[in-house]
Every structure is written in C-alpha cells, then in structure tokens.
Amino acid sequence: MNAITTTNIKELKKLFSGKVRDIYEIDPDQWLIVTTDRISAFDVVFNEGIPGKGRVLNRISNKWFSKMTMLPNHLISTNPANELPYLANYPGIAERSVIVKKVNRLPVECVVRGHLFGSVYSEYKAGGTAGGLLLPSGLKLAQELPEPIFTPADKAESGHDENIDHDRFFEVVGEKTGRQIIDYAIAIYIKARDIMKGLGIILADTKFEFGIDKDGTLILVDEVLTPDSSRYWDGDSFKVGESPRSYDKQFLRDYLNTLKWDKTPPPPPLPSEIIDKTREKYLSILNTIEKI
Ligand SMILES: Nc1ncnc2c1ncn2[C@@H]1O[C@H](COP(=O)(O)OP(=O)(O)O)[C@@H](O)[C@H]1O
Ligand SMILES: [Mg+2]
User: Which of 75, 93, 165, 176 is 20 to 30 A from 3 in CA distance terms?
Assistant: First the structure.
C-alpha cells in the first residue's frame, strides 16, 4: 500500500495544506478536509507518509465526534462521496475526508492532561508547575494527576506552539468563551478517558481545537482524540515512573531522539521499520476505538 502524501482534487479549489490535512473549498461555508498519510513530529513534516494513516485518523476522529454530543461540532458529512460523486475518481480520498462547516478557528490549542508527561514533565521537574499550574510535589514520570488540568498553547502560524498561561488564554479567546472551552475540554477528556479505561487503554492527554460559527456558537473542530492529537498508553504494562508503551506518535519521537537531528527541516528519512511499526500502532488503537 502506498502512502497518500499529496492530493489534487481538480473539481475543488485547494485553500491550504496543514501539516497533515489538505483543505478544499466546496463553498464559502463548507470545506472538504482530506486527512493525508503525512506524519509530523516536533512540528516537522516527514517526506515519507505512513500508509493508511489518514484513513485511520479520519475513522477515529469521526467515531469520537459521534460520542461527544455535549456540544456541536463542525461535521456536515462523514460520507463525502454522496455529496461529491467525483471523489470516486480519486482512490483513497473519500475514506480520508469529511465535509465540515468552516468556522473562525480560535488560535489556541486546548490541551487537557490527566498524566504528567512530555513538555509539562520537564517543566514540573524544573519548577513544580505544569502549564504554569502548581502541582503537588513528588509526582513521577507518567503519574496520574489528582485531576485533569487544562494547559493551553498558542497555535503558531509557523514554528512551535508555545504553552501559554490561563490569563493569556482568556485574553486571546475572551473570558466567557474561555470558561466554556475549559469546561467542554475537560468533560470530553473525562468521557473519553473513562471509555478507554474500560478497554484497557490510558488516555494520558489530548488536544482540541474550537471555533465560533456564524451564529456565534462555540463548536468543536479539527480532529478529536486521534493518536496524532493524544497520548494513548497500554494500561496493562503501565508503571508510574517509566516511559509507557504507547499507541501514538511517541514511538516515532523516541526514534528521532536517538538521531543527531536538531528538529528543524529538512527531516531525516524514516526507515521502513519505523514506518511499519508506527502504522501498526495506529491500526491497533483504531481496532480498540472501533469497539466503542
Ligand atoms: N471547521 C474548521 N474551520 C476552520 N478551520 C478548521 C476547521 N477544522 C480544522 N481547521 C483547521 O484546518 C487545519 C487542519 O490541518 P492540519 O494538517 O491538522 O493543520 P496543522 O498543521 O495546523 O495541525 C488546521 O489549521 C485547523 O486548525
Ligand atoms: Mg492539526
């Protein structure tokens, strides 16, 4: 199976490409979002794709959107070939695509963390805080936090997303919207965390994006609870203090950390074992999530 890393749907206008998704305009209010097989780490996109990854992410995200009925989301159709029959001429595209409501996306990444890992673990070790929030002392790597915390980041147009504190977050999105976002983000995380726990998987953290539609309503956009935007850990082998066995991009990050690469473009080539193993991990978490 070949990876789909570029797309070209001639019937539609391509608006832009994100690191992973290609965005096409259907009309001023509706977009076709195609999740390609591209993969990024440390905000750098690799030349090689992970075959089938776009389909896996699209299925996982659509599944979770259907469970999160506490707020509106951007999905108009998860079966875009119905509305756009010419997609049949582009192998692999329909199963990677959704039609969404285009909204004013808020320029923040809304991160919820239930465990201490990644950037906030380094921050905690240095000063006892995570995303600026004071945590109890003595917590170990990967340990579950007393309660989930909201650690927003700005969504940089280019370069790395930097963590911001809650004051800055409220400045960017407004106090009322900010409070709503925090409540929704934590509620969605808790619901997904509890569902996954029943399936033997720890949902350690995740990132959401929100937007405001034409009526001024806050809606959930982008992707939800995918292994690109979340950390999924194996519950059985989990041990506090150790780096967990994960079903997400951590495997790729760990590999990249063994290289002498400064995490700026150009990216190093990905060996086929790394591509295969990453593909297996994404397929494995899809299998679990499809049971929900
Ligand atoms: N419904 C929506 N309305 C407007 N923008 C959206 C919507 N859903 C997703 N987006 C944006 O589309 C892009 C998706 O492409 P992606 O490859 O994930 O980008 P990124 O490199 O920013 O992660 C992101 O910029 C995301 O914020
Ligand atoms: Mg994205």
Answer: 75
Query: How far, CA to CA in Å, does 272 sit from each of 50, 211, 267?
Result: 10, 38, 15
Q: What confidence tens digit (pLDDT) does each residue in 61-106 have?
A: 999 999 999 999 999 999 999 999 999 999 999 999 999 999 999 9
Report how far residue 93's alpha carbon sits from residue 126's, in angstroms, rounded to the nearest whole number: 45
Pick from 27, 61, 105, 225 the residue to mutate for probing ligand 1's pocket: most ligand atoms within 8 Å of its CB: 105
| Domain, as residue range, for 86 | 13-102
* Those residues with Cβ within 8 angstroms of residue 166's Cβ, 6 or more apart along the chain or in another chain: 132, 133, 150, 152, 178
As given in the structure block, the two tokens for residue 116 are: 């201490």
Are residues 175 and 282 located together in one domain of the fold? yes
Give domain status of residue 8, yes or no: no
Give yes or no: residues 64 and 35 share one domain.
yes
Ligand 1 atom nearest to CA at 104: 4
Please give the distance, rounded to the nearest whole angstrom, from the Cα atom of residue 288 to the centre of ligand 2. Answer: 22
Q: How far apart are CA 48 and CA 68, in angstroms?
A: 33
